[in-house]
Amino acid sequence: MSETAPRLAFLGPPGSYTHQCALDRFESSVQYVEQSSITEVFGAVSADIPFAVIPQENSVYGTVIDTYDALRRPEAGESVFVRGELTLAVKHCLVVRKGVQLENVQRVISHEQALGQCSRFLSETLPGVPRMKVPSTSAAAQTVLYCGEGTDEPESAAICSCQCAEMFDGLEILFKDIQNEASNTTRFFILANSLDAPLPGSKREPRRQRALIRISNPPSPPREDEAPPPNRLLHTIVGTLLTTFGCSPLRIDRRPSLTEVPFDDVYFVEVGDVTLPLLSSTANKSYEKDWLERLNAGIDRIRAAGGQATILGLW
Q: What gap in Å lies between CA 61 and CA 130, rounded to an integer?
């Protein structure tokens, strides 16, 4: 790996699923910089660390809340952008310190998503054993090494990948493939500090045909003498997406807004046309130009209707 290669932030320590996914995509084209939380990964994207990878959704346990909470922040769409997506088949295992038996386990540690993805196994195999959330699966594996005999911490097991278990000396795998569903898959976002700069390691820049748009109400002070009104943008978002953006809505996510108005929401709408095959370079550029014009026209319509709309990413 060259010392001049661009830097990429990931949810650490090394061995996390985010780290594995980033390695699969970028290999040696970047320098990897671990961060201790998804929030810190998002905040690290800058001129110094221009790229990052964060988990977005799991096929079993759903949306990664910390990621969408970060996308509510004002720098999203201004200095941090979604530039791509990756998927990773996730196979979990249960690990302990070497020599520890299942009956000795007093606590299970992992990321919230991993605990949820393995809920059936935990309920059947370790019923009643407390579950503790930590920032990542690799952090859970690392923590287990400092629990149990000779410490003030209860004997613990971690849920992580088999590759992660092999990275930390002193761990032993008790069970493999403990996820609820064999098809368990996680989708990740590639982040960048630019909406247009080429991604490292790309042999060919594909035509951009997806966009992530944040839609919200303008900030306004709450009125104590009135009940919170229904979200004014709901009809616009659900009822007119196709005509607003000129392409199909692929998914809609919702989080509480950062305003002081109770029950005011911010929507994250992913739109795109993924049906058209890749064409010649000239045709791709022409199609992308037309699509971006329609996308920006939709943004203008939402703003004209009194809403706020920001393009958070294109890929």
A: 19
> Alpha-carbon distance 90 to 58, whole Å?
9
Cα–Cα distance measured from residue 310 to residue 296, given in angstroms and rounded to the nearest whole number: 10
Give the contacts of 114 (CB within 8 A, at least 6 positions apart). 92, 137, 140, 159, 160
Task: State the Cα torsion 162-167-169-173 to the nearest 10°.
Answer: 0
* DSSP letter assigned to residue 20: H
End-to-end CA distance of the chain: 26
For residue 37, with 0-12 CB atoms within 10 Å meaning exposed, 13-18 middle and 19 or more buried, which class applies?
Answer: middle
Segment 35-74, tens digit of pLDDT: 999 999 999 999 999 999 999 999 999 999 999 999 999 9
Instruction: Specify the DSSP class assigned to residue 300.
Output: H
Contact 232, 257 (CB under 8 A): no
Q: Are 301 and 244 in contact (CB under 8 A)?
A: yes
The H-assigned helical ranges of the chain are 17-26, 38-44, 65-71, 112-117, 119-125, 137-144, 162-167, 234-239, 241-245, 281-304
Read off the DSSP letter of residue 151. Answer: S
- Other beta carbons less than 10 A from residue 111's beta carbon: 28
pTM of the model: 0.88
Residues 253 and 68 sit within 8 Å (Cβ to Cβ): yes
Residue 229: pLDDT above 60? Answer: no
Give the Cα separation of 140 and 107 in Å (integer).
Answer: 11
